[in-house]
Automatic annotation (TrEMBL):
This is Uncharacterized protein. It comes from the Eukaryota.
Length: 111
């Protein structure tokens, strides 16, 4: 693989993968698209309409707490290799943070 191609292929880390949901963190060396950050969270779901509702709720929450709730950069649908339509969302990943899925089992029940 040449050096330019390697810069465009992201490093990925699967955060959650189940029969209905896959969430992963992508890190690019360069902006994947003008204006997009190089660290992204991508969520794919079989229930394609659910993510649109979640993005709307996240937008409302962001109005109240813009420093805490991240912006949803994009939400839409895509067809997988089997022809199924999946919902997807793209949000920024904040460096120096962890996803709740990564530490959920380590949390005390009182939290």
């Amino acid at each position: 693989m040449d050096a330019n191609r390697n810069r465009l292929v992201p490093d990925e880390h699967v955060i959650c993968n189940s029969s209905g949901v896959c969430t992963f963190h992508l890190t690019f060396d360069v902006e994947p698209h003008p204006g997009l950050p190089t660290d992204l969270i991508i969520r794919l779901e079989i229930a394609k309409d659910k993510l649109k509702a979640v993005a709307r709720m996240q937008g409302l929450a962001r109005r109240q707490a813009p420093n805490i709730v991240l912006e949803t950069l994009e939400v839409g649908t895509v067809d997988d290799a089997q022809g199924r339509q999946l919902g997807y969302s793209i949000t920024p990943f904040l460096a120096g943070t962890v996803c709740l899925e990564d530490i959920w089992n380590e949390m005390e029940k009182s939290n």
